[in-house]
Design brief:
With about 500 residues, the protein is of the alpha+beta class. The protein has helices at about 5-15, 25-45, 50-70, 80-95, 100-105, 110, 115-125, 130-155, 170, 190-200, 225-230, 255-275, 285-305, 305-325, 325-350, 360-380, 390-395, 400-405, 415-420, 425-450, 455-475, 480-500; strands at about 160-165, 180-185, 185-190, 205-215, 220-225, 240-245. The longest helix is centred in the first third of the chain and has 27 residues, at about 130-155.
Length: about 500
């Protein structure tokens, strides 16, 4: 054994400032720490792909962390911004308890409590090298999500029905123009030729189970039809026109193009900050971050979501201002202007919309919801009307947007939504967190510059991502989307962990 190694091991197992652990307890703690980090890795990988998977991963890490605290008999380290977050959760709980329909409101508390994911991340990262692993895996997973989107737009995700005669048996079975057939009798189809081959080669008289997608976002549906009915519906003729099925607006595997856009915006801001913070001589790493950023931006453009594209641009400008040199700022800013220009032309081409389109039905719906939201805030200023109660009481409260468009939806703004559902005190708690978090990140950034270039890039990316979130949050209810809340507080956990590492000798092990 190397001289001095035994002492260092003893200090790790029996830290001088904590309770003495038994050898059995120390072994259990090491196993728990390994499992906790495994689930945090799983959390980072699943964030761009699976809502349930990511939620279960951080919850598993959180429960294991509580078990670790019980074995160690230690308290968590004092965490920044605990007061506004605790006030936000408690006031949301009080509002839910006073809701006219608690059975509607209580399930929403699961989304409110997703802020605890940040606590699980912050309390269990001990070294900056762990942060590096999570960041790289998260961005690789985001790159995979962008690649999946590219695959959907090139290879296709099924066979789209371009035209079908209303008299056809296939039409009567429920398949209409615009639907995308994905599987026939458990065999996937991606081209009209594949679909025709599967149908024709099916046994005569066989019943075919047809799975298809409809609408945006996609709704999975299924129907049944005999082989002969499918053929006589015009297969191979102009009466049934088929083409490769491609999404109108990209939604990845998260189930909705807006949710996917929010995720891509958060990932894009971090990738951009990491690109700017990487030393030029490390061209391989810099090229990786550049490829990830371009891929994420292209996928974000495919969602055709104006607010999140604007959020990405705002976040990138912040990161550029914080990290870029003068010459780099000029070129990068020119690139961002080009991005906004291309996005404007693309959205106008695909959706026939400008950045602010007063004639858009979506804009009109938002304005109506905002006006009625302000009215409800005046009527219920303290604890609101309860989360999700609009689904039952919209007629009673005369919500004009729902009456006119027959869509029961949210109030299209984080701030109005919180105030309407949970009252002005809860909104004040959330704004307290927003301001305190911005101040915390701004103060943290100069400290990281003294210790680690990588940590500086991460903190700048977190700050840019949060600024990016603030843009769409004014016109969308972002805090109602699980993936955005989870990744936003995953970033929060990284920032708090880095803040704690700067105060811990030896924790900053990445230059």
């Amino acid at each position: 054994m190397v001289p001095g190694q035994q002492n260092s091991i003893t200090e790790i197992v029996h830290p001088p400032d904590g309770p003495v652990r038994s050898s059995v307890g120390a072994a259990w703690i090491r196993r728990l720490e390994g499992l906790i980090f495994f689930f945090l890795v799983l959390f980072a990988i699943l964030l761009p792909h699976s809502i349930k998977g990511a939620r279960h991963a951080w919850m598993a890490a959180g429960f294991l962390w509580l078990a670790k605290l019980a074995i160690e008999r230690k308290r968590p380290f004092p965490q920044a911004l605990s007061a506004p977050l605790l006030a936000y959760i408690l006031l949301s709980g009080i509002s839910t308890a006073l809701s006219p329909d608690p059975y509607l409101s209580w399930p929403r508390m699961k989304v409110v409590c997703l802020v605890l994911a940040g606590v699980a991340v912050a309390q269990n990262l001990k070294r900056l090298s762990q942060v590096r692993i999570l960041v790289l895996l998260l961005l690789l997973s985001g790159l995979a999500a962008a690649a999946f989107t590219a695959w959907q737009y090139t290879y296709g995700m099924g066979v789209q029905v371009k035209y079908i005669a209303p008299s056809a048996d296939l039409y009567r079975a429920g398949i209409h123009a615009g639907d995308i057939v994905t599987r026939i009798s458990d065999r996937s189809v991606h081209t009209p030729e594949q679909l025709t081959k599967v149908v024709v080669q099916s046994p005569p008289g066989s019943m075919l189970r047809i799975r298809f997608l409809r609408g945006e976002p996609f709704h999975k549906r299924a129907t049944f039809l005999t082989r002969e009915q499918f053929v006589t519906s015009g297969l191979g003729t102009l009466y049934l026109q088929l083409a490769r099925g491609k999404p109108g607006r990209a939604q990845g595997t998260l189930g909705h193009y807006i949710v996917f856009a929010e995720m891509l915006m958060q990932l894009g801001c971090l990738a951009w900050a990491m690109f700017l913070s990487t030393q030029p001589r490390k061209w391989g790493i810099q090229a990786f971050f550049a490829i990830v950023f371009v891929a994420l931006t292209t996928a974000l453009m495919s969602t055709q979501t104006r607010a999140d594209i604007a959020g990405l641009a705002a976040g990138c400008v912040v990161a550029l201002w914080l990290l870029g040199r003068k010459q780099t700022r000029i070129w990068a800013f020119a690139g961002l202007v080009l991005l906004v220009l291309v996005a404007t032309l693309w959205i106008h081409h695909t959706r026939r919309l400008d950045w602010v389109s007063t004639g858009d039905s979506g804009t009109h719906f938002r304005v109506l919801m905002w006006e009625d939201g302000v009215r409800l805030i005046r009527q219920h200023p303290w604890f609101g009307v309860g989360m999700d109660t609009i689904f039952k009481h919209w007629q009673e409260w005369n919500i004009r947007g729902v009456s006119l468009y027959r869509v029961i939806y949210h109030f299209h703004s984080d701030y109005i939504q919180i105030a309407v559902e949970r009252g002005l005190p809860t909104l004040a708690a959330w704004l307290w967190f927003v301001v305190a978090y911005l101040v915390f990140l701004i103060r943290l950034l100069p400290r990281t510059r003294e210790h680690s270039r990588f940590a500086t890039g991460v903190v700048a990316g977190v700050l840019a991502s949060f600024v990016g979130y603030l843009v769409p949050s004014a016109v969308q209810y972002c805090l109602g989307d699980d993936p955005l809340v989870m990744i936003m507080f995953f970033y929060f956990g990284l920032a708090v962990a880095i803040d704690h590492m700067l105060k811990t000798p030896g924790a900053v092990d990445v230059p």
